[in-house]
Design goal:
Structural class: alpha+beta
Helix content: 25-40%
Low-confidence stretches: none
Oligomer: single chain
Number of strands: 4
């Protein structure tokens, strides 16, 4: 499993969420298995998003779609401010208590 982690600043969370729901990049069609959205308790204009894929290649291809087709478009990404910080992660170890 690979996780695409995206950290971004947004002008308005509800506007960002509405655009996210429209799914201009086609998450499921691109192989996404699920996602988690996080917001720091003390920061209303920051969003952290983890999107899970079966492989690093799928996560990378989806990130490329975001960078080339979604983020440059004010219509598809109306609330995003500046450049997103991204990482493609592979789980090394996990433990539950």
């Amino acid at each position: 499993m690979a996780t695409l982690r995206i950290e971004l600043q947004v002008r308005d969370y509800e506007l960002w969420r509405s655009a996210f729901e429209k799914d201009a990049a086609g998450r499921e069609r691109s192989g996404a298995r699920g996602y988690r959205i996080f917001r720091p308790a003390e920061q209303d204009h920051e969003v952290m998003l983890d999107i899970d894929f079966d492989s690093v290649a799928e996560a990378g291809a989806f990130l490329d779609t975001l960078r080339t087709k979604v983020w440059p478009s004010p219509e598809k990404s109306p609330a995003k401010i500046g450049e997103a910080k991204t990482h493609i992660l592979e789980m090394v170890e996990a433990r539950e208590y």
